Amino acid sequence: MQTALAMPVIASSPAQVPAATADQIADYFLAFANATGSLLTNMKLQKLVFYTQAWHIAVFNESIFEEDFQAWIHGPVLPSLYERYKSFQWHPILRDDLEEVSLRLLESQLSPSVREILADVIEEYFHKDAYTLEMSTQQEAPWLIARRQLPLDEPCTNVIDKKTIHNYYSQFVKSDGQEFQSS
Questions:
Q1: Are the beta carbons of 15 and 63 closer than 8 angstroms?
Q2: Contact (Cβ atoms closer than 8 angstroms) between residue 47 and residue 132
Q3: Secondary-structure breakdown of the chain: helix, strand, coil percentages, each rounded to the nearest 5
Q4: N-terminal to C-terminal alpha carbon distance within the chain
Q5: What does the alpha-carbon distance between residue 106 and residue 68 come to, in Å, rounded to a whole number?
Q6: What is the pLDDT of residue 100?
Q7: Residue 124 three-state SS
Q8: What SS3 class is residue 92?
């Protein structure tokens, strides 16, 4: 089984800022993509949001948002986020309302802990294509455990348990909480 990537992070305690939503995290990535001239598909967006939630749970022992990912064929998926962007199919998501100004506004609404994780996810995962991210998540324990040995092409809506996410990704956080370990 392949293990998670290394990601540097300076772990501070989560600030008392209202919890973010999955849509806010997705909008942040879409605004970042637009600001940098990049393109995001629904599949890649799903994986970026998943890794943001997973690493936040691992480092801070706290979810960013309550909604659960499901172990779909192509990796972890938030059904509500999928529904929001399914009309784009495999094409890039186009949101002209999200650009550099939106990025700064969204960032200001997020807690320092979420901003730290977003920066790390961008550094470690954003440059990867959707297929590579899909393959990574499919080799990691949270997705595999939720699938319960179903064939890869078998549809599944099993929830990826947050405790499983924590147990898996937290093993890559150094004991001093200062950075993720390479595996």
A1: no
A2: no
A3: 50, 5, 45
A4: 11
A5: 22
A6: 86
A7: helix
A8: coil
> How far is residue 148's CA from residue 168's CA, in Å, rounded to a whole number?
16
Checking phi first, is residue 85 left (phi over 0); if not, alpha (psi -120 to 50) or beta?
A: alpha
pLDDT at residue 7 greater than cutoff 80: no
Cα separation of 126 and 52, whole Å? Answer: 11
- State the Cα–Cα distance between residues 158 and 145, nearest whole angstrom: 10
Q: Alpha-carbon distance 165 to 116, whole Å? A: 19
User: Tokens representing 109?
Assistant: 């609404």
* Amino acid residing at 134: E
Instruction: Please say whether the beta carbons of 123 and 32 come within 8 A.
Output: no
Check: CB of residue 118 under 8 Å from CB of residue 52.
yes
The secondary structure of 139-173 as a DSSP string is TSHHHHHHHTT--TTS----B--HHHHHHHHGGGB
For residue 41, give both structure tokens: 């598909």
User: What's the CA gap between 105 and 112, in Å, rounded?
Assistant: 14
59-69: pLDDT as tens digits: 999 999 999 99
Find out whether 78 and 69 touch, Cβ atoms under 8 Å.
yes
What does the chain come to in residues? 183
Do residues 183 and 3 lie in contact, with contact meaning Cβ atoms separated by under 8 Å? yes
Place of tokens 């550099």: 100
